[in-house]
Design brief:
This protein is of the alpha/beta class. The chain has helices at 10-22, 38-49, 79-89, 99-102, 120-124, 128-143, 155-167, 197-212, 219-228; strands at residues 5-7, 27-32, 54-59, 93-95, 147-151, 173-177, 232-240, 254-262, 265-272. The structure holds adenosine monophosphate.
Amino acid sequence: MNSVKVFKDPAKLQKWCRERKLAGAKIALVPTMGALHDGHMSLIRAAKKRGADEIVVSVFVNPVQFGPNEDYEKYPRDEKSDLAKCAAEGATAVFFPTPANMYLDRHSVYVNEEDLSKGLCGARRPGHFRGVCTVVAKLFNLAHPDFAVFGQKDYQQAQVIRRMVRDLNFDLKVVVAPIVREADGLARSSRNAYLSPEEHGKALAISRGLKALKPGARLSSLARSLEKAGLKVDYVECVDAETLEPRRKIEKGVCVLVAVYCGKTRLIDNRVF
Ligand code: AMP
């Protein structure tokens, strides 16, 4: 197994990354909330493929991006296993901050993206993208990455981060890696751990429904098939893949996004056409 540096203190990570950068290293950042699975590993592999000398994986369940009735407390946490997976995949540094050292007493500065965050998950999870943008901006300032890798699994998030990087002139590239699925098609997610085998079975309707969508198909029939499988639809939307504005027709250049509740578990997935 490769040796991997472990940081808990933001200032120490920042110092090390600054030194590595000054020494000419190309730094990749992979932000995560931990409970790592093969979707996360694919981001590390994408960083390696792009020639990163240092791959910094952050593992932080960011309280600011959770709503009051969401699963912040019960979100799965397993530092030991996360560290082993990062090392095995070739990450060179893992950052495990605590809420207290990321958000100091009287923390009062937040980053708001005000266009792409309005709909979809932003509309259903007020304050979510404010929390995401704030923590990602902080991670950018700590890790000085040349590029940061995100997953298409969280399509809206990736678009919001791209916009934040553009609008706030962060000097880095955003790389978006494809969705990694289980063998049965379910998009990998740390929240899949909440699903009973029966719920897992129901959740397969999401990837199946998205896969079956043909240009010209109706979203209402997708929503109906999800409800029929026993899922509660939070939203099923067709939007312009760039602007996230609503589009009527399924055609090239759109993204269809789905959010459902499977029991108490909220699951998301999407397909770009
Ligand atoms: P999370 O730990 O769920 O916040 O995810 C951290 C990063 O991993 C985000 O950029 C996600 O989009 C990405 N990610 C999560 N699940 C997958 C997946 N199944 N395939 C690809 N990327 C993923």
